[in-house]
Amino acid sequence: MLNLLDLAPADAEKVLREFAVAHGHQAYRGSQVVPHLWTRPVGSFAEMTDLPAAFRELLARHFVLPRLELVTQQASTDGTRKFLFRMADGQAIETVAIPDDDRMTFCISSQAGCALQCAFCATGAMGFLRNLDVHEIAGQVRELALLDPPVKATNIVFMGMGEPLMNWKAVEHVLTILNDPKGFGIGARHITVSTVGWLPGIEALARRKEQFRLALSIHAPTDALRQTLMPVNTKFPLADVIHAAARFDRRVTFEYVMLGGVNDRNEHADQLAQLARECKAFVNLIPLHPGGAMGFTPTPPEAIAKFARRIRTLGVEVAIRKSRGMDIAAACGQLRVERLRRGAPAGTQHDRQVDVA
Ligand code: SAH
After folding, report:
1. What would the mean pLDDT of 199-210 be, rounded to a whole number?
2. pLDDT at 325
3. For 313-330, what is the mean pLDDT?
4. 256 C-alpha to center of ligand 1: Å?
5. Is 287 in a helix, a strand, or coil?
6. How far, in Å, from the CA of 356 to the mean position of ligand 1?
7. Residues 136, 142: Cα–Cα separation, whole Å
8. Substitution site in 94, 195, 217 for ligand 1 pocket (most atoms within 8 Å of beta carbon)
9. What is the pLDDT of residue 335?
């Protein structure tokens, strides 16, 4: 049984057209299936009512369209919605949908858990469980489009659970599905891959011809400090990450979580601005979500504003992320952690903000 949702749309179409012909149907019947996978998705072959019943039954005997099970969801008063999905092996992942004016940004997961152990991150604390398959990553977007009423993404950020560039084998196909007009048809500039600076993955992303955006989790402007927050810095030191960002010929965003008394001094702002200038990056300052933040305290809002002004004075574009989903467990890994530890989701003060510029 071939899983059509693990294939890029063009590959699925080829398989389906050949399948149709091999079973005595016209090739275009195969093409007719494709919009039902992503663009105007339906949950099963039976629901593809523009196809003859006999062909639908034939499809169901040879192909599968696996679903993700929606375990629970939470809605914030600000309109942010968070979804917990269970996959076939029982592992759980999170997806967040953030409305903002006419945009709807989905924050999607690329791995169950994460190997990287960033000191302030709830997903890191659960350890690495496994990579997600193509259909499990793209399926998060598909499942929300299958809701009644549907929730459709205009923007995608890979800022849910996991390190997308450590799962490039799947993510490279997911990018195609998201962007392809026969997939979700989301513009490449509206799709952002966020990474700790996993160099082989940045190079692979740079080789793509589409204008996908890159966000780099910098979080500290020196190796000595970054090392204490992000163990991955030993493998890929800051200078190498900055070099890769400078060579990336499309817009790069720096993400910088503001950790009170740790990375929020004037000298840090100056050093960060210098790095940003080297790669013409835009800086996003992120208020810390206390959720996963063992031992860290958020930098006060006035101090974040001052830090931002200092960076701006040095000629670097900077924004402070607004916090969204304040009243739900909408920080990285938090819903899963709550659900699995306590058995039920609970409202928390934690927030999560994912509207990348
Ligand atoms: N692994 C990728 C993508 C997932 S995390 C990456 O690190 O970029 C997405 C963003 O959320 C990263 O910038 C990450 O550092 C940030 N993040 C993790 N925990 C956070 C917290 N408690 N508060 C604020 N941002 C957090």
Report:
1. 97
2. 77
3. 84
4. 9
5. strand
6. 12
7. 9
8. 217
9. 54
Q: Give the C-alpha separation, 68 to 17, whole Å.
A: 26
């490039």: which residue's tokens? 168
Please name the residue whose Cα sits nearest to atom 12 of ligand 1. Answer: 217
Nearest-angstrom CA–CA distance, 138 and 199: 23
Residue 254 dihedral angles phi and psi, to the nearest 5° = -90, 135
332 is catalytic: yes
User: pLDDT tens-digit profile of 35-74?
Assistant: 999 999 999 999 999 999 999 999 999 999 999 999 999 9
- Ligand 1 centroid to Cα of residue 318, in Å, is 18
| Identified catalytic residue from 107, 114, 121, 332 | 332
The pLDDT tens digits for 88-124 are 999 999 999 999 999 999 999 999 999 999 999 988 8
DSSP code for 236: S
Environment class of 271 (CB within 10 Å of its CB; exposed 0-12, middle 13-18, buried 19+): middle
Q: Which atom of ligand 1 is nearest to the CA of 293?
A: 22
320 with 257: CB under 8 angstroms? no
pLDDT at 334: 55
- DSSP-derived letter for residue 330 is -
The whole-number pLDDT of residue 348 equals: 30
CA dist., res. 183 & res. 23, Å (int): 25
Lining ligand 1 with CB less than 6 A are 118, 120-121, 158-159, 163, 194-196, 217, 255, 257, 286, 288-289, 291-293, 331-332
3-state secondary structure of 84: strand
**Domains of the chain (ranges plus CATH)?**
2-64 (1.10.150.530), 69-355 (3.20.20.70)
Nearest protein Cα to ligand 1, atom 21: 289
